[in-house]
Amino acid sequence: MTALKLAAYAIDCTDPRRLAEFYGRLLGWEIDEPESEDHWVELADPSGGAPLAFQLAPDHRPSSWPSPEVPQMAHLDVRVRTLDEGHERALAAGAVQLPQPADRLDADFRVYADPEGHPFCMCAAQ
Question: Mean pLDDT, the chain, as a whole number?
Answer without folding.
Answer: 93
